[in-house]
Amino acid sequence: MHAWPASEVPALPGKGRDLRIHDTATGGLVTLDPGPVARIYVCGITPYDATHMGHAATYNAFDLVQRVWLDTKRQVHYVQNVTDVDDPLLERANRDGKDWVELAEGETALFREDMTALRLLPPQHYIGAVEAIPGIVPLVERLRDMGAAYELEGDVYFSVESDAHFGEVSGLDRAAMKLLSAERGGDPERPGKKDPLDPMLWMAAREGEPSWDGASLGRGRPGWHIECVAIALDHLGMGFDVQGGGSDLAFPHHEMGASHAQVLTGEHPFAKAYVHAGMVALDGAKMSKSKGNLVFVSKLRRDGTDPAAIRLSLLAHHYRADWEWTDDVLRDAVERLGRWRAAVSRPDGPSADALVEEIREALANDLDAPTALAAVDRWAARQDADGGTDEGAPGVVSRAVDALLGVAL
């Protein structure tokens, strides 16, 4: 599966700062020191109803992670998956009378278009669950052979008790885990499971549903969590720098994935930091496919909204915050974009050297984009009020906003 084209990232003078970011597992800020190549895995879409603003906010956050690392002169090895076969996708295809493959391909193509328009940097490896199945099957077999998995009526489940570190990612108690498992694709009430929290690794073929050869597992399809584990281990290995996604993935998805990988390899941790973006709401409720309260990037673009303004509307909120999409949010972003473009269109202006360092410091401090935006606002206000004599300043600001915030002025 191919990703989307990369926009050019301007080189800035000097060097950025190491990233301090909130780690869900420890509950505090950690300073990441990845070495010359930073490794990041971000969980991708299940391709139906893409790309809503909740998606856009999440992937914008991890685009900032990449940009901070690039500014420190590191290379970035970024991997993202596409869950192109799963119950919600099949249910949507059945509801709409569509072929599930056609639905997945169409929504994935639209997602690529939106990511390109928003100028989000693409992953080096963009892997679908279906294409990953040949690598998933041996992992499930190995877990079973290790005694860390068991069969139940043809399905194969992972035993959470096999991982001594289970629960360390989310930090939740069992009662909370059980509730979230039921809400987020698990089946804690299924009779015969060793533990209600045990997640499915391999689902035996169901009539009318797609299935693949699972060797000794029989025909079926993979569970959600093992998909990402297989892809991450194949392309990044253990102990990569950041596992990312929305806050609703901390449990069960990232918790279970970490346990799968840790049992398979005997190593800990799966990722050095687990980083989660907040949820975007509309009309007082979390924006979600099930509720149908979605604002789509593609519709905003079709209606004539500049993608740079959409991106600024995301950057105006701290990535970990839960916030609500409103017309005012977009209007403020459109006005800000206009002010910034007017400011950099002049032949000279106030010195921008300090501004570049302010943006760098804000982003290095847990991706504090709102503080970075406020710094650019102040420079634009000085430009509007007094101007300046630095002929290179508008160009420096334009390149810095592009390189660090991904906004083309």
Q: What would your notes on this structure say?
A:
This protein has helices at residues 53-71, 87-96, 100-117, 129-146, 174-183, 224-235, 250-265, 297-302, 307-315, 327-344, 353-364, 369-385, 393-405, and strands at 20-23, 28-31, 37-42, 75-82, 125-128, 149-152, 155-158, 200-204, 220-222, 240-246, 271-277, 280-282, 285-286, 323-324. 47% of the residues are buried. The protein is globular and about 75 Å long. Helix 4 (129-146) packs across helix 6 and helix 6 packs across helix 7 (250-265). The protein folds into two domains: 20-286, 3-Layer(aba) Sandwich (Rossmann fold), CATH 3.40.50; 297-405, Anticodon-binding domain of a subclass of class I aminoacyl-tRNA synthetases (Four Helix Bundle (Hemerythrin (Met), subunit A)), CATH 1.20.120. A hairpin with a 4-residue loop joins strand 1 and strand 2 (28-31). With 409 residues, the protein is of the alpha/beta class. The protein is built from 13 helices and 14 strands. The chain starts with 19 loop residues before the first strand and ends with a helix.
